[in-house]
Task: structure prediction
Amino acid sequence: MSTSTDRARKPRPISTALYRHPKGRLASLLTLPMVWLIGVYIFSLAMLLVTAFWTTDPFTSRVKPGFTLDNFTQLATVSAYSMTALRTLGIAVAVTLICALFAIPLAVFMSQVAGPRLRALLAVLVTLPLWAGYLVKVIGMRLVWTENGFFNWALEPLGIHGPGLGVLTVTLTLVYLWFPYMAIPVYAAVAQIPPNLFDASSDLGARGFRTIRTIVTPLLLPSLIAGSIFTFSLSLGDYIAAMYVGGSTQMIGSIIAQNINLNPPLAAAFSFVPIVLVIIYLGAVRRTGALNNL
Amino acid sequence: MKKILAAPAAIAAALALALTGCASEGTTGGDASGLKIDVPDIPMIEKLGDNEKEVNILAWSGFVEPEWSDAFTADTGCVVNRKIFATSDEAVQLMRTGEYDLVSASGDASLRLIVDGNVQPLNTDLIPNFSDDIVPGMKGQLYDTLNGNVYGIPIGRGANILEYNSEVVTETPDSWSVVWEKDSPYAGKIAAYDSPIYIADAAIYLMKHQPDLGIENPYALDQDQLKAATDLLKQQNAMVSEYWSPATNISSFTGGNSVVGTSWEVLRKATQDEKFKSVLPQEGSTGWSDAWMLATDSESPNCAYAWMDYTSAPEVNGAIAMNFGMAPANGAFCDTSDEAKAHCEYYNATDEEYFKQVWFWTTPIDQCLDGRTDVKCTNYQDWTNAWATVKG
Result:
């Protein structure tokens, strides 16, 4: 007892000062994360984006400061660039929709139907892809989709022939890569839905899919949106999948990767495209009010 | 441009002088082909001094291995620090950080490095192994010799060959037409190289098949010629199974997606399947030739010179060539053993007739490399932009 009072009496200048100055308290709490956020993240991003207005020496490919909008004009006028942007957007939307389509019934099954052992097993299976390296997974998918690959080998006897490397295989690969990012938040949300809502729904005569459509989906919207931000933005930025399973498919990332050493300003200008698309998406999401529930 | 670049170059040169304590003088002169490119005036080293403690080398994978670098360190006291790069563009960027003494530059990187003043001319008198044994085809090429100065000490070379699956392509194709013409029986199964430099392959085909375009050098294309090459590539795009990188080439063929297309000998060999064969078609082909280049502001020029000399010796040069799978620069290697002889024969090491059909990668620049002065040629950035439109 006496020792604790002794300790209480001992002068603790730092604690006292922080107690007296709430602003100092805030500053000491936020300095480190803010330095990281602004100094490392935002500053380097800004530096990258500024180069979008610079030029490149055509011969030595050295970047020269200046101001030009040529790089952006190229994005809009060269049809290959705008086509690539549209294609990438289409792939990202498709990946997001497919992930959501799979994630909802799976989450309902896991939380409402499956027993604890099966639920644990499914949770492990869903997160399993996260355990392996990104490149390993992409190369694994390549082995599945090549002409002599697993898919054709397994389904050839049934007369089914794979799609061959292209936009479709890129989409499927990205679904495989990003599915856990959709499935986990959706599962967490479904698990929180009170079971009596399901009982009430079935008492009123709704079957499985109607329950999913009218009860589960509205309650899931925030988690679906959280998941879709991952699947959408990760798909927009990917280029390794296009390289390994895309055949001749070109995505935004492919063009950025091709130009990053030779024409960094063009690459920087192109990196505005996914940023703008994600901002538009987040803006639209905010209007629905779903972000308030996150 | 020359003036702006000359200032830092001069400072760097002065620094190099101070470090090595050597006398030197500026060098200028014209190239045999008549092509004159503005190059920063950087003096070469006249005399070697004592070896430093270490040398920092930027290299293609397989060029600097303990197997031969350990012996070098034991001989010279120079510790070898190696950094591996994956593409020529990466090599150029890394070399400009100033942290490296040497780089194994391919022809599409070397011109950029020379003109930007990143590398210095070399005094070949200080490299005894740069002798008559170096195969003639690797001396004095545009990508490492400019305005009469030698900037690169050759390491090895190879051709981009036409690889085909002999189970599907039963007759040896003697022309690139199987990958370019739209009636190709292998449409949908054609492999193409994923780099803007592949435009040169289209240009080589057009040189033979559309002579009225007047292409003399596949790396010197004016606007119209570039457009013709791009159109040919767009026609090919519809038939391409895959644009490959070294990482995907092998499984593209073994996986059955591609049955014919441009490739590298070392990649074809890596399939470890004899049904994949290669040929150098009658139109000729593109290829690559690598050389050591010394940084302008190198901190260890003596170790660097020692390394260039050491790796030009027949045995060491041959070891690098065998490890990487290419034709060695030093022809004397071919007579050192039966194994060496077989390697040289396979890669046509001393067969200049073979390499006469090979257009080694060179950076396309505004000045036409074929000597035309009445027209402006397209540079590598134009090629990069054109390449994006090919893939759509």
Observations:
- The longest strand of chain A covers residues 55-56.
- The mean pLDDT of chain A is 87.
